[in-house]
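Narrative of activities, Objective 1.

The group set out to show that a structural description can be obtained from nothing but a protein's sequence at a throughput compatible with the screening campaign. Below is one input-output pair from the validation batch, recorded exactly as produced.
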Amino acid sequence: MNLNELYEIEKLQHAYQGRTVLDIAHLGVHEGQVLALVGPSGAGKSSLLRLLNFLEPPTAGAMRFAGELVRHPAPLALRRQVTTVFQRPALQRSSVADNVALGLRLRGITPDGQVDAMLARVGLASLAQQPARLLSGGEMQRVALARALIIRPRVLLLDEPTANLDPYNVGLIEEIIREANREAGLTVVLETHNVFQARRLAHRTGLLLGGRLIELTATPQFFEAPSDPRTAAFVRGDMVY
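Output recorded for this entry:
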């Protein structure tokens, strides 16, 4: 497995209306790995994902991607290497197949058989011509995931991708993520409140509290022998703020 740092964050701070929401001394995201970020609501996880997706610049500090300093506005070629799947997917008022093909069309790529193959991969081949907005929540999330994966990004950012879904869809989505990481070497950054999901999927897990990265280590150590007492408390399910 390639352990090169695809993202490198140094002395990063980010603020909204004068309130600092992120203050991270160092964070490296290893290429080809799944990194889970856990923590309570308001810890800064979503703000960090926005920075990793180049949607806005940090207030202070530096972020590098593949060794290059990220400047804003980030060039299109850079932004196209990273895609995000959100907790509530925004789907077009068209068929499932049309939604999955959207990213290819925007890049001027003729879908050919790629859409059918991707729908089969996420278990939605029989629903290709169904209106996407009539699907169940779990099916809609699998459409969003298929739409993200079909463009073959270098990085997949996941913002609570299985929140409020039934166990069947959670299992399907986790297996799709695991397969994409294993077979295509996809780098995944997963933000989740579900510590069990982090334990199942991630190679490394980090705890964010109050915008600070409290601990980041290999997932087995994070859950079984954390070095920070706040991490241990969080893993036990205690209230930590």
